[in-house]
């Protein structure tokens, strides 16, 4: 059997084969590893916990643990609790606990390479345009803000350091790209083709540096 890489996350992961960063990873590792996309659109870290044992079951001799797993939640957790996406909101302390539980599950079953990925930044004007175009609702304020997304990104980064895991901080990395709001995001949140390519590039960089056996 080829080793497996499992990408676990929300819609940004689910759309990764459309084409996107998970598709680029699969292409790079064709005939070397099977990339399994376990993205769930709309999910937050609380709901992800309900799937954890099914996505990452106890390994057996016939089904060993994945060689690599990515954990990419937070974009929905960071939805503000007093606005239209309130159902997806997860408080910061609970979010921290949930991501820790997911990461520790992966360590417990013996996944040797785990990468935590933070939520991307939010382009608030583009979120307002997206909601109006998609739902016909004109909002005065967006349901997500870049400042709050940054708080969730900081939690992921701190937790990765605590657990000794690499972290891909998209919130920071994307904002270093000039014109990131439209170049990397297509609706203020999800990724453009260039945004997907950037996620893949940064992830492959982490793999090469932290897990050279998986180059």
TrEMBL record:
What is the species of this protein?
Chlorella variabilis (Green alga)
Q: Say if the entry is tagged with keyword Hydrolase.
A: yes
Tell me what this protein is called: SGNH hydrolase-type esterase domain-containing protein
Record keywords: Hydrolase
> Domain of life here?
Eukaryota
Q: Which PANTHER family match?
A: ISOAMYL ACETATE-HYDROLYZING ESTERASE 1, ISOAMYL ACETATE-HYDROLYZING ESTERASE 1 HOMOLOG
Q: What sections of the sequence does the record tag as coiled-coil? A: none
Instruction: Say yes or no: keyword Hydrolase present.
Output: yes
């Amino acid at each position: 059997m080829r080793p497996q890489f499992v990408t676990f996350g929300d819609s940004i992961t689910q759309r990764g084969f459309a084409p996107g960063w998970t598709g680029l990873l699969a292409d790079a590792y064709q005939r070397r590893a099977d990339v399994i996309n376990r993205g769930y659109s709309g999910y937050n870290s609380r709901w992800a916990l309900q799937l954890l044992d099914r996505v990452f079951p106890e390994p057996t001799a016939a089904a060993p643990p994945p060689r690599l797993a990515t954990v990419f939640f937070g974009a929905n957790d960071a939805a503000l609790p007093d606005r239209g996406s309130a159902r997806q909101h997860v408080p910061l302390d609970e979010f921290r606990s949930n991501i820790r539980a997911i990461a520790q599950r992966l360590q417990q079953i013996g996944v040797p390479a785990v990468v935590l990925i933070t939520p991307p930044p939010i382009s608030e004007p583009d979120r307002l345009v997206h909601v109006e175009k998609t739902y016909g609702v004109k909002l005065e304020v967006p349901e997500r803000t870049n400042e709050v997304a940054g708080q969730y990104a900081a939690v992921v980064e701190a937790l990765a350091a605590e657990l000794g895991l690499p972290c891909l901080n998209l919130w920071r990395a994307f904002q270093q790209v000039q014109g990131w709001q439209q170049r990397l995001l297509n609706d203020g949140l999800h990724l453009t083709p260039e945004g997907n390519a950037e996620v893949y590039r940064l992830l492959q960089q982490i793999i090469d540096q932290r897990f050279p056996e998986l180059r």
